[in-house]
Amino acid sequence: MQYWLFKTEPDVFGIDHLANRPQQTEHWDGVRNYQARNFLRDEVKVGDQVFIYHSSCDQIGIAGLAEVVRAGYPDHSQFDPESKYFDPKSSPENPRWYMVDVQFRQKFTRVLPLTKIKQLPGIQELGLVKKGHRLSIMPVMEQEWHTLLAAAEPRTGIS
DNA sequence: GCCAACGTTGGC
DNA sequence: GCCAACGTTGGC
């Protein structure tokens, strides 16, 4: 079992959207970065735990938790000419982009802000706090996960 | 295979 | 909205 951090813009799709989906589950499509794609295709597995991170918004930071309920499979939006994620160079026979399904687990009472995350001990290696990071899918070390989770308390929902 | 131009990300 | 950082593209 591994830990991850998924970035999203809450104005487009945030933790509240996920919580309101049927079965509180949604496919995480639209990732168009090769390094992130490799994680989705090869390494993200069912049962993995995910921080949902809100970017480009008022309250930047980790908003809650989700769990992977389906491992990597082709992102269907790449085949849809109507989609903003359409990729004419991709084909169902040789798909370029992948996605996973995640299910809502809990929403923090308060977003754990990026400013606070940067002050936490022992997370210097987390891609999020490194300068110029642009990965939308990144691994989180187990120790980092526990540090971040502790910093996010108190929180609501099951644990 | 180099690298300049371009587009995107994302914090501020 | 600005702009620095970064990834991708395409001409050569």
Structural description of this entry:
The structure is a single chain. The protein is α+β, with helices and mostly antiparallel strands. It has one domain (3-152): ph1033 like domains (ph1033 like fold). Helices cover 19% and strands 31% of the residues. Strands 2-5-4-3-1-6 form a six-stranded mixed beta sheet. The two termini are 17 Å apart. The structure holds a DNA duplex (12 and 12 nucleotides).
Domain module tally: 1
* Overall outline: globular
Give me the CATH fold name.
ph1033 like fold
- The percentage of residues in β strands lies in 25-35%
* Sheet of most strands: 6 strands, mixed
Distance between the termini: 17 Å
Low-pLDDT runs: none
CATH class identity:
Alpha Beta
What Rg do the Cα atoms give?
15 Å
Number of helices: 4
The helix/strand order is EHEHEEEHEH
Task: Please tag this protein with its features.
159 residues; alpha+beta; ph1033 like fold; 6-stranded mixed β-sheet; 31% strand; DNA-binding
